[in-house]
Request: fold
Amino acid sequence: MATAKTSQSSREHDVVVVGAGIAGLMASSHLSKAGYRVSVLEKARGVGGRMATRRIGEAVCDHGAQYFSVKGKSFGRVVSEAQDSLAVMPWCDLFPHSKTAEGPIVELLDEMGHARWRGTHGMTSLPKYLAKQLPEPVQTEVRVRSLGVQDNAVHLSCENNQTVVARAAVLTAPVPQAVEIFQAGGLWPPAVDSEVWGVLSSVEYSPCFSLMLWLAKPSLLPDPGGLEVSSGPVAWIADNYKKGISPAPSLTVQATAEFSREHFDTEPSQVEDKLIEAVNSWIDGKALDEVQATSLQRWKYAFPVSPLKAPMIAVQNKPPVVCCGDAFGGGRVESAASSGLAAARWVQRLLG
Reply:
């Protein structure tokens, strides 16, 4: 994976991209191929955003986005190239579902299906593949504090005392975080159109708990290893071993937005107990004996409540500053990818 830390105090680029999730990497890839010098800043230790994979003991778990679909030609070409490089592969055509996390399973009709894709070694495989193609490595563990405009250039101040100067900026962070970055840099009305600012300020997200369980024995979840749940505290259960990414038995349990919102500040061990109890019927034996290790991820900005229909929002034209990501165009992996590509094409038109 092409990542690097940095301690530089100042550096000039054509475009700076904030965030190395699928939107940021799609934007960076397009602009780099177009000949622009692109700097990608990521606050986490690795790339991928919510296309996230983690190891727990001997198990490997996807704990953010669980799969993706392909409908558009642009994203389809990227996925096809990634498949040729063994970074992604089809998982299945559809998932069974149940009314509650306890079951029973309701099988769906085959004609309702379409290809669901996964990363070969987890959902981070696709972001890692895209990051490797970039001419400059992604700068990880770099948190942006503010974005301002000076002398027709964007100036980003980071917590590591680095200042990045560029001709344009693409922000793919969750919109509330992007708004905070703009405010800290003085980029708000009247410098920004009040209607644009109102739209950005109105974007809300639902949280999500994602509980990862390393099991002593394989789970009882049926093939292909994914179960959609329509009521109760759990929305999704995945068997990472059956999915093909984990060498050891493991489950990923994702809570509903309602449960996650209600218990977001609850003691983590209590949240784990509630979710384990909800999926106990899929654990072969007593959970106390079979669960080898647990890890609970709290996603504060998991799902946009009402995704914006526009694929991106231009904050200003001179210099170009644009917001994009999973809150634009639909809220899914392909929507975020398409949003990043739309933002990159917009920047390219303005920079010339």
Notes: The radius of gyration is 21 Å. Residues 333-351 form the longest helix (19 residues).
